[in-house]
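Form 7-S
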Amino acid sequence: MRVGAGNTWRGLVHVALVAGLSTGCGAAEDDSEASVSASAADKAGQADQADSAGGSVERGGTIGAAGSPCELPVTFDIAAKWTAESTSVPGKDVPEDLADVMLLQGPVTAACEVDAKPAGHIGFLRVWTGEPGAADARAVLEGFVGADTGASQAKYRPFEAGDLAGTEAEYRYTSELLDETKTERALAVVTPDGPVVLHLGGLDTAEHEAMLPAYELAKRTLRAS
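Output:
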C-alpha cells in the first residue's frame, strides 16, 4: 500500500541498520545522517555553508540524461562535490520483501539520490518518479507529502523552470525516532514520461537551510529530458 509508505520507510531504516542491512536509498536522514558528526560536518563544510548563507553555490554537473549517474525524465544541475547515485533498482541493496515499502512514497518511486556529504552537509536531494497518468503536479505533490505521516503544515505554491511548470511545497517533518521537527521541501512536475518529485531533507532545519542553494540550483535548471 503506497499511502504512508514514506513514513514506514523512515522507520524501517532503523530496523535495517540494526540488522546490519544496507538500504539502496542510502538510509533516510533519521539514522544514517545522524551517524555523521555534526562537528565534523561543520569543519568539512565551513566554506560551503558560507556560500550557502550568501545564496550561491558552484555548479558540479548535470544529471538525468542518458549516460549520467541517474537517467530520469528530467535533467538538472547539481552542486559541486554532491554525488548522484541511482536508487531505481529494487533489490539491489534492499531486501526484496522490504523494497516495495521502502522505495515508494505516495504515487512515486525512489529513483535517485544526490548526497551532500562530500560537500560537508548532512542530507540528500532525492528524486522520485512515477508512471504517466492524469494527475497534475499539485495532486502528485500532495500525494507525496500526504503519504508521510510525519509531515504537517505544508504550504504549496506554483513555480516555473524552463519548459516545465510545477508545484512546490515547504512543510514540517516530525521524526518519532529522533523526537524533533525540521523543515523539508519538495517539488513536483509532470512530464510525458510521468511525474517527477525532487525532495530536500537534511539532518535538521539548519542543515536544510544550508543546502537550499543546491536545491534552488536544481529547481532553476530543471528541464524535461
